[in-house]
Description:
- This protein is α/β, with parallel strands linked by helices.
- The protein has a single domain (5-207), classed as Spore Coat Polysaccharide Biosynthesis Protein SpsA, Chain A (Alpha-Beta Complex), CATH 3.90.550.10.
- It contains 6 helices and 9 strands; from the N terminus they run βββαββαβαββααβα.
- The protein has a 7-stranded mixed sheet with strand order 5-4-1-6-8-7-9, with helices on both faces. It has a two-stranded antiparallel sheet with strand order 2-3.
Amino acid sequence: MSEKILGVVLAGGLARRMGGGDKGLQQLGGKPILNRILDRLAPQVDGVILNANGDPARFAAWNLPVAGDAVEGFVGPLAGVLAGLAWARAHRPEITDIVTVPGDGPFLPRDLVARMVAARAQASADLACAVSAGQAYPVVGLWPVRLYDDLHRAVVEEDIRKVDRWTARHKLVQVEFAALPVDPFFNANAPEDLAEAERLLALHGDAA
C-alpha cells in the first residue's frame, strides 16, 4: 500500500444522549471505548490523532495528539474531518489520506483501512465510506489530504454541514462490511447502547 494513512478518531461531539462527557471515555468490558477503538485502528494506520474540543488534558493518558475543530460551534463531523486533514498537512506532510472513525464505535473492522483503500483504487474514486446492513456511515471514511482546500471552502465559506452534500461533489465508493455476528459500526450513543455493547461483548468476545 503506497498510501500513508493517518487515523483520526472523531471525539468532538457533545454526547447529549450520553448525558454529556466523552463517549470514548465510557467503560466497556472493563476498559474505555477509546482503548477498544485504538486497539483495532492503530495497527491499520501510520499514526493516530484525536479530534476533540475543550481541554485536551482529559486525553493525556493516551499520549496522542489532539486536534480541535478549526470551525467554531460544534458544526458536525465535517469540521472533524477538516481538522484531521489540517493536522496531517501541518505535522505529517507524508500523509496522503486520513481515515476517520467515530469515538463511540468499539467494534471497528480490523481490515477497515485495507478494504477502503482497495475499493477506492478499484473504483478510481476520490473517497470511500463504510456501509453495513444497508446503512451508510459517512463519518467512517477515507479522505485524501489533497481535498483539504475544497473541504475548507465548503465548510467555512459555503456553510456546508452535511457530509453527503460535500461528498456528492466527488466520486465516492461505498464499502460493504458484514453486520454479523456484530455490526462493526455499532455506536454507543446512549446508556442503553452501552448496555447492548456489553451484552454483545459478553456473547461474542473478540469476534465482536
